[in-house]
Amino acid sequence: MTVARVTKITASSPEGFKGAIAEGLERASKTVHGITGLEVISQKAKVVDGKISEYRATIEVTFILDE
């Protein structure tokens, strides 16, 4: 029987939401193995002087637990 766990991660990028999502997955992959998918929970942006300065994405990463 396979058992999975879901963990929530927030990451940011100055380039866009796609970059923030990729950064979150890349960072999670350094310490979590067996990642099988992710879900984007929210997308937000930091605004400075009327312009977006940082894109933020919160994702839930699913991974299989070891036996």
Explain this structure to me?
The chain has 67 residues and is an alpha+beta fold. Helix content is 22%, strand content 57%. It has one helix and three strands; from the N terminus they run E-H-E-E. The chain has one helix spanning 17-31; strands at residues 4-13, 35-48, 51-64. The longest helix is centred in the middle third of the chain and has 15 residues, at 17-31. It is elongated, with a radius of gyration of 14 Å. The model has no long low-confidence stretch (mean pLDDT 96).
For this entry, give a set of tags:
67 residues; alpha+beta; 3-stranded antiparallel sheet; 1 helix; 3 strands; elongated
- Major sheet characteristics: 3 strands, antiparallel
Give the helices and strands as they follow along the chain.
Answer: EHEE
The number of distinct β-strands equals: 3
- Secondary-structure content class: alpha+beta
- The spatial strand order of the largest sheet comes to 1-3-2
Can you give the mean pLDDT?
A: 96
| Proportion in β-strands | over 45%
**Principal-axis shape:** elongated
Helix content: 10-25%
Model regions low in confidence, pLDDT < 50 over at least 5 residues:
none
Our Rg estimate from Cα atoms comes to 14 Å
Gap from first CA to last CA? 9 Å
Please count the helical segments. 1
